[in-house]
Amino acid sequence: MVRQRVRMRFCKQGDLRLIGHRDLMRCLERLFRRAGLPLAMSQGFHPKPRMTFPSALALGIEGVDEVLELELTESPPAEELLQRLTPHAPPGLGPKSSRKAPRRPGSAASPTRCRSQGGPASAWRRRSTT
What we know:
A 4-stranded antiparallel sheet has the order 2-3-1-4, with helices on one face. It is of the alpha+beta class. It has one domain (4-104): Alpha-Beta Plaits (2-Layer Sandwich). The chain is globular and about 40 Å long. It contains 3 helices and 4 strands.
């Protein structure tokens, strides 16, 4: 099965700002199901849609330009994707744009790269013993 990664931008405003991250994930899952999107599901006993967020919003904070990556089993055009989602979206949740996402290395959910601070581990042990 070929999976297509899509990066979507959306806004979370109004009364919807008062729901938590996990409730927002469930809301988006229902939205995608109602719109008839071919979601790719995880493997195992309790399959879930393959969606990732780079960071969760705090409760009560409005999100004007949030990012979501999801995997689809088909690849509809970006305009068609937005047209299918918009009529089913609850008030306060607005899909803004969608495009093909890059493969894993440049993913929105990939951890930030940082250099390690200090020297080798043996230097740390010497400092802690003194």
